[in-house]
Amino acid sequence: STPYCHTTAGLSERNKKRLAKTDHDGGSRLSWAGTDLQLPVYAKNDGTAGFGFQDVYGRMFWNRPAPTITTRFYSISNGRFAHPDQDRPISLREGAALQTFDVTYGFYAKSIADNARLIGNAVPPELARRIGLALGNEAIVIENDNMTSHEAFDIHKAMGDTNYSISLRKMNPT
Asked: Residue 71's Cα: distance from chain center in Å?
């Protein structure tokens, strides 16, 4: 099999029309509220503060943090996962890049959904690297062998960009 690289999920004709009407660079489904493209579930309440998840069918922003990459990031109906300018969802490769996977990393699952699940469920490689550096450079001190549910990790002051001193200690029950 071949790797899924710059692959996107297909869109229905209706969703293609919705994206075409959605403002670029952060637009939302409110761009087509009150039209025949409006989703019935939102017809009476779109624009109402606190009603529904406002990011569904939304476009990502160029100059704001990306949304959390979930296992369904390939679908515009599951969050703000449309490309900022192009009328399409972000690709598997773009989602992987946001998760900090190297551009050469291949995904070989059997479907777009399976590959998206791998990417969305992954610990971002850069985060894993930084945690590994922190744990590799500092000792973990365990103060009590009989740990209970009253114990917690206490993260001490940060020591530079990637070095943290971590200790596990028994908390006093109240």
From this structure: 8
